[in-house]
Amino acid sequence: MAEVRLDRITVQYGKKTAIGDFSLHVRDGECLTLLGPSPCGKTTVLRAIAGLAKLAGGDVTIGSRVVASKDRRIFIPPEKRNVGVVFQDYAVWPHMTVEANVLYPLKKRKVPREEAKEQVSDVLRQVRMADYAARMPFQLSGGQQQRVALARALVASQDVVLLDEPLTNLDANLREEMRFEIKRLQNETGVTVIYVTHDQDIALVISDRIAVMDKTGSVRQLGTPEELSRNPVDSFVYRFLGLSNFIAVEIVDGEMHVRDGSERIPFPYPVPSGMGSTSFYAACRPMDIALARAATDGGAGAGGALRGLVTRVIYLGNIYEYRVQVGDSEIRVQQDSYEAFRNGTFREGDACTLSIKNIRYYEDVEEVS
Amino acid sequence: MRAGQSLRGSELRRMEGSRFNTGQLLLVISTVILIITVVLPVAMIVYNVFFYKWSFDWSLFASMLTDPDNLAAMWNTVKISFLVTTLGTVVGLFFAWLIGRSDIPLKGLMKSLFVIPYMFPPFIGAMAWGLLLAPRSGYINKMFMALTGGRTPLFNINTLAGIVFVELCYYFPFVFIQVSGALERMDPTLEESARIAGANQMTVIRRITMPLVVPAIAAGAMLILISSLSHFGVPAILGFSNGIFTLPTKIYELIYRASGSFEGIRQGASLSILLVAVVVLALALQRRVLRTGRYDIIRGKSMRPMLIKLRGWKAPLLAVCFVFLAITVILPLFTIFGVGLLKAYGVPMKLANMTLNNFKYVLFESRMARDSIRNSFFLSITSAVITMLVGTMIAYVIVKIQPRGKGVLEVLGILPYSIPGIVLAVGVILTWSGAFYLNLYNTIWIILIAYIARYMAFSMKSASASLEQVHDSLEEASRTCGASHFESLLDVTLPLIRPGMVAGFFLIFLPAMRELTTSLLLYGPFTRTMGVAIYSINEEGYTVQACALAGVAIIIIVLGELLLRFVTRERRGQ
C-alpha cells in the first residue's frame, strides 16, 4: 500500500508533449481511474509512474520515496520501483507456464522458493486460476491470460498496481465479470490501483475516484463516481459520462427558447441563474426524456410542453430509441421497452411532446473525441 | 498513445541517465563491429584506388576505365544479368503461378523439387553443364555428333548464352519462392469477387492477381539481379577457356595474374569500384521502374484459393514441369555423381567403369580435399555462430533500443549484401594483410572475417524479423517485475527468439559451405575451402576427383537443408 503523487510532470516523445504539467494525488489504497478519450496521455501517466517513460519535468513520488525527479536528477529504473503493471495486451510471457509467469517477480526479488510457491498458489486462487498453473499461455483464453497478468502484477507489488485498459480486448460478458473481479481483489488486498480506460461503464463500477482527462492531457474533474454523475462540471465531462443531448437555447424576454429553429419554439423550463450570456445549451440524457402524444389540434401542447416530430424509431431490444426533431436539432430519446409497449410506441412522423428531467446547462458544447 | 509507441523503446533504454547501461554498451559494440568488418574494407578499396602514397591519384582508375578489355567485361556483366533477370523472372513467375493457382497435380512434390536448384551451388552446376555441353568433349555434344555424324556440336556452353542458361537454372527460384509465398498468402476472395463482378479468367490474372504479386516479383527480381551482377562461379568455369570475362571474373584474373602483387590488387580494386557502381545503378534503376504502390491486402492467413482448371493443358504442362526439372536438377546431379564415380574422365559411363575410388580419395587420401572439408566446416560453423550472435545483437539495437543513429547501423549491416563477394574479398585483403599492423593473409582468419562481413545482412534480417514478433510490452513487463534490462533480455527476449536464431544459423551455414568467390581470393596453401578445392582440382584437370568432391559437398548441403526444414517445421508447429 502506498500513495502516489505526481507533481507537475511532463513527458515528451521526441518533440511531442504527451502530457504537460500534470499533477495528481492518488490516495493510499484507493482505486483511481484515469478516464479519457484516446489519445489523452493517460497511458503516458501510467508509464511515467512505472518508470517506462522518462520525465521532462516534475516529480513522481510513490509512498515516501521520490522515484523520478527531473530537477533532482533522480531516476529509479522500473525494476526498482516496486510497481505492478497489467499491460493492455497482457504481456504474459508465452514461453513460461502460468505458474512461472507469476513466480517470476518473486524470483527476481529472491524470495525463498517455498514461500514464493505458496504466495503464487494463493494469488492464483484469488484470480481463480489455480487449476491452470501448469498451462502454457497459448492454451488460455483472453480472459484467463488477463487474470494471469493481474496475478503477476499483484505478486510484483503489494503497494501499487497499474492497469492499462486491460479489459478492452475482452468480450462484453467477460468484461463485465472481470471489472467486478478487479474491484473484489482490490478490496481484498488493499493495494493502490491506478486504472486507465476510455470506457466510462468500467470506470463507474470499479473506481473509488475518477479523474476525467481531456485530449490535451489535463484533468477536467476529479471525484467519486457519484459526484461525477450528479454534478459534471462541464459539457466535456457530461458527454464523456454517457449518451447526451445538447439543445441550443437562448433567453428572450425572460423566457427560454430553442435557438436554432426557423420558428420560435418555447423551452418551457425555469431559467437557470448564473449563466454568463443569454445563449447557452441545455443538456439531458436520452433516458431522462419522456414522450407523450401531442394534441392533434396543432395548438400549443398541454401546459406549453416542448413539441417535436418523431423522425426515426430504432428498437434496441430492452430499449426503444427515438430520434425527435425539435427545431433544427435532433434529440435522442430512449425509453424502457416495457414501458414503451405499455404506453404505446411511436411511429415515424408522429408529433409528440417531450418532458425532460435533470436538465443541466452549459455555456458551450465540446467535442469529446 | 499510438504516436508515442514507436519512440517508447528508445525512451525506456535511453532514460537510464548518463550512466553506461546495457543498451548503450550494445550500441557501441555493434557499431565497432560493423565498422571493422564492413566499413574498413570498403574504405580501404576507395583509398587504395584513388590515393597513392597519401596523395589523390585519379590516373589508375581512369586507365582501368578506358581499357577496352574491362569495358567488354562490364558490358558482358550487364548483358548476362539483364538476360538472367528477365528470363529468370518469367520462368519463376510461370511455375509459381502454375503450382499456386492451377489444378496441376503433384503440387507438394513439385514445390519441393523447384526449390532444389536454389540449394545447388551454381558453380557445381556450371561444372556439370561443362561436362555435358562443352563443344567437343561434352557428353551431349558427343552423342549429338555421333548421331548426326557431323562435327558441329549441338550447343556450345562456353558462350554468353551458355552462361546465361546456367545462371538462369539456379537463380529463377528467387522469383519462384517469393511469388509462391505471396500467392499463398493472398486472400482468394479478392480474385473471387472480381469473377463475381463479371471479369473473366484472363482479366482476373491481369488486373487482380498480377498487380497484387508485383511487390513479390520485384523483390525476387532484385535478388536475381544483384546475384547475377556479382556472380563469379559460372562465368569463371564456363567463360575463362573461351576468353569471356565479366567484371567479377576480370577482377579475379587481374589479381591472380599479378600473383598477389600490390599493383594487381589495386587494379582489381579499381574494377571493384566499377562493379559496385554498376550494382548500385541497377538497384536504383530497378527501384525507379518498380516504384508501384505497396499492397497490404496480402494476409498472413492461408486460405484455399480458387484453382484454374487446366483441362486439356494439364498433361502437356505437367510434362513441361518435369522436363524442366529433369534438365535443371536431375541431369546435372546425375552428371556430377556419374562422373565422380568414373575410373577416369573420358571413359564411357558404364557400370563396368564405375568405382568408389574417387570418393575414397577425396575423403581419406587427398590431404588437400580433406583439409578443405574440415576448413569449410570450421569456417561455416564459426562464421554462422558469430554472425548470428552479432547480427541478433545489432538487430536488437535497431529494433528495440532504437538509438538516434540507428539508420546508420541499418545501412552498415545491409551494405555487404549489395557488395559482391569478390569486392569484399579485395577489401579484406587490403585491410588485413598488414595495413593495420596485422597480417592475416594466408590464414583461415582472413576468410572468417570476410564470411562474417558477407553474411551479416542475412543474420540481421532474420533476427529483425523474429525480434519484431516480440512485443515491447513483454520486456517492459519483466522490467516492472523487478528484472534489470540485461536480465529481461536473458529471461524473456532471448528464449522467445531462439528458434529464429537457430534458423538464422542455418541460413548462414548453408551458403557458407558452398562459398567460392570470396574464399578463392583469400585462400592460402592450407586454408582451401570446399568450393576452392573443387574449383582448383577441376581447373587442374582432375575432373573425376573434382566431381567426387562436388558430390560430397552436395550431400552435405542437402543434409543441412533437410535439418533446417526440420528445425523450422518444429517452430511452426508450436
Quick structural summary:
The complex is a heterodimer of chains A (369) and B (574). Chain A has 369 residues and is an alpha+beta fold.
Order of helices and strands of chain A: EEEHEEEEHHHEHEHEEHHEEEEEEEEHEE
If strands are numbered along the chain, what order do they take across the biggest sheet of chain A? 7-8-9-3-10-11
User: Approximately how much helix is present in the residues of chain B?
Assistant: over 70%
Question: Beta-strand percentage of chain A?
Answer: 25-35%
Judged by helices, strands and strand pairing, the structural class of chain B is mainly alpha
Give the overall shape of chain A. elongated
Keywords for this entry:
heterodimer; A: 369 residues; alpha+beta; 6-stranded mixed β-sheet; 9 helices; 21 strands; B: 574 residues; mainly alpha; two-stranded antiparallel ribbon; disordered N terminus
Could you characterize what this model shows?
The complex is a heterodimer of chains A (369) and B (574). With 369 residues, chain A is α+β, with helices and mostly antiparallel strands. Chain A contains nine helices and 21 strands. Helices cover 25% and strands 34% of the residues of chain A. In chain A, the strands form four sheets. Chain A has a six-stranded mixed beta sheet with strand order 7-8-9-3-10-11, sandwiched between helices. In chain A, β5 and β6 (74-75) form a beta hairpin. In chain A, α2 (98-108) packs parallel to α4 and α3 packs across α4. The two termini of chain A are 35 Å apart. By secondary structure, chain B is mostly helical. Chain B is built from 24 helices and two strands. The model of chain B is unreliable at 1-19 and 293-302 (pLDDT under 50). Classes of the chains: A alpha+beta (369), B mainly alpha (574). Chains A and B meet through α1, β7, α2 and α4 of A and α1, α20 and α21 of B.
